[in-house]
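Design a sequence for this backbone.
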């Protein structure tokens, strides 16, 4: 493990020392961007398998480095290799973009879906409370109206009234035996019917009271449940809503219409946001690495950069000597042309 760490430290130190101060800044930023880039690609791939995660991370790293390598090969005169490497960047870039947009869209859509489910439960709990409260108010109103119309109903019970029916039935039967249902029989019959109606009324009062009690218990339980339900305020959802409104405003919608972003606009803005963010994340690391490569000491010296003579690399010293001897050196391409031969100065051995 120490050997691996030492190798990596030595490699990074070698790489660091080849850059100008500005190049070192760009290289440090490129490494930071590359770390984020590879992490995003890994998170996208690991949702399938760990090997996919490692594979997509390697694609991100390769896509970051390859443009600078292709540029170096072109500068050395290996234009065929440079073009081949540049072409390889195309499919690698497509796969890198796939991983970035897949991860970004997955996070955004996942957050929006989870927020939707959470807030739907929150809304359901609130709506359920409203429904039970409406039922409770209805039962209470019915009970109040019934008691107002039948004040006696609160002073008797259905059972006490029902206890009077047998004697009335017996009296009616006896009157009927004495010669038919005369006035007294009719009076007893009306009394029986009145008591029967009163029994129905008292039973309805009792039933409404039971409904009110049951609904109140349900309401108390749902109130406790609703109190524990959380409303989720999602940054992603809020951002997407604002972007959708800005998009509608930018396309010429009236203010009243712009603030009412429809589902299609919301979805389009979400896709666009995920896509543009993924493109930026994917491009920043290779661009910084390429820019850092243009700020290597060797490259700057051959282009006329001013450094101390002791810092000049061996091949640059060779180029200076050959210039003094009348040979022609092509600075931008890092090539030395001597009698029709092309000599690679990059690979010159140290002095």
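Sequence:
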């Amino acid at each position: 493990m120490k050997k691996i760490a030492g190798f990596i430290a030595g490699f990074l130190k070698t790489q660091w020392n080849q850059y100008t101060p500005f190049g070192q800044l760009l290289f440090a930023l490129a490494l930071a961007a590359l770390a984020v880039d590879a992490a995003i690609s890994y998170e996208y791939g690991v949702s399938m398998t760990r090997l996919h995660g490692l594979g997509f991370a390697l694609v991100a790293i390769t896509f970051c480095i390859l443009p600078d390598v292709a540029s170096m090969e072109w500068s050395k005169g290996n234009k065929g290799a440079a073009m081949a490497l540049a072409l390889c960047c195309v499919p690698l870039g497509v796969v890198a973009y796939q991983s970035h947009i897949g991860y970004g869209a997955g996070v955004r859509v996942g957050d929006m879906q989870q927020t939707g489910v959470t807030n739907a439960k929150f809304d359901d709990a609130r709506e359920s409370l409203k429904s039970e409260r409406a039922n409770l108010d209805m039962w209470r109103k019915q009970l109040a109206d019934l008691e107002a119309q039948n004040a006696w109903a609160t002073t008797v019970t259905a059972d006490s009234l029902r206890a009077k029916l047998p004697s009335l039935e017996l009296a009616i039967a006896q009157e009927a035996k004495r010669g038919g249902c005369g006035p007294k029989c009719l009076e007893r019959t009306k009394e029986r019917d009145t008591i029967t109606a009163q029994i129905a009324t008292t039973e309805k009062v009792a039933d409404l009271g039971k409904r009110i009690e049951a609904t109140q218990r349900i309401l108390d339980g749902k109130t406790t449940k609703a109190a524990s339900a959380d409303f989720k305020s999602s940054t992603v959802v809020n951002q997407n809503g604002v972007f959708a409104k800005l998009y509608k405003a930018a396309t010429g919608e009236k203010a009243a219409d712009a603030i009412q972003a429809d589902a299609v606009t919301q979805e389009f803005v979400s896709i666009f946001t995920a896509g543009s963010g993924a493109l930026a994340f994917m491009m920043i690391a290779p661009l910084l690495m390429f820019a850092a490569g243009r700020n290597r000491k060797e490259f700057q010296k051959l282009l006329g950069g001013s450094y101390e003579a002791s810092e000049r690399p061996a091949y640059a010293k060779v180029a200076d000597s050959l210039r003094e001897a009348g040979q022609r050196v092509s600075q931008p391409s890092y090539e030395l042309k001597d009698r029709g031969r092309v000599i690679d100065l990059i690979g010159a051995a140290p002095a």
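The chain has twelve helices and three strands.
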